[in-house]
Design a protein that fits this description.
171 residues; globular
């Protein structure tokens, strides 16, 4: 009798462990319905950007490495946005919106900047415990590259160029 009960109990425990592990592991793609509320009030979703390579960059106005990589991100956006590339900067939930707006205006940031006041965007990307952090999303919606720290721009350019016609590595 004990042997008959042992197998279902073991299977139930194994199933519970598998579900727990699956929930704790980072997803290979953020939900396509992830919504970004931009500084100008517009809303974007990852679904609306499907078919394009998208770099989602998490940052804060008080983060020195974030500020240091800003010129490279601006250059990347200005060079490749017309070819279909999109970059969305997400200000961390603790960064006051007025400070973010002032920073963006002062530095002439040309790409969309989202506020994550309620932390939903950072949660959709696994919590983002450290910044700067970047997620390069392929046109099919999967995460092609996740990077913590100052972005390896050469590596990012190489990956992005695979998806954009007319870029040096895409030819």
């Amino acid at each position: 009798m004990k042997r008959r009960l042992a197998l279902p109990v073991i299977l139930a425990v194994a199933a519970a462990i598998a579900v727990t592990v699956a929930l704790l592991l980072p997803s290979s793609a953020p939900p396509s319905e992830t919504e970004f509320t931009l500084l100008d009030g517009r809303k974007l979703t990852l679904q609306s950007l499907r078919g394009r390579p998208v770099l989602v960059s998490f940052w804060a106005t008080t983060c020195s490495p974030c500020v240091a990589e800003l010129p490279e991100l601006i250059r990347l956006y200005q060079e490749w946005q017309r070819l279909g590339f999109e970059l969305i900067a997400v200000a961390m939930p603790y960064d006051p919106p007025t400070r973010v707006l002032e920073f963006v205006q002062r530095h002439g940031v040309p790409y969309p900047v989202a506020l994550d006041i309620d932390g939903k965007i950072t949660s959709a990307f696994g919590g983002v415990p450290y910044i700067p952090a970047a997620f390069l999303i392929a046109p099919n919606g999967s995460i092609e590259l996740s990077y913590t720290g100052r972005l390896d721009i050469v590596k990012a350019r190489r990956i992005i160029s695979k998806y954009l016609p007319g870029t040096p590595s895409a030819s």
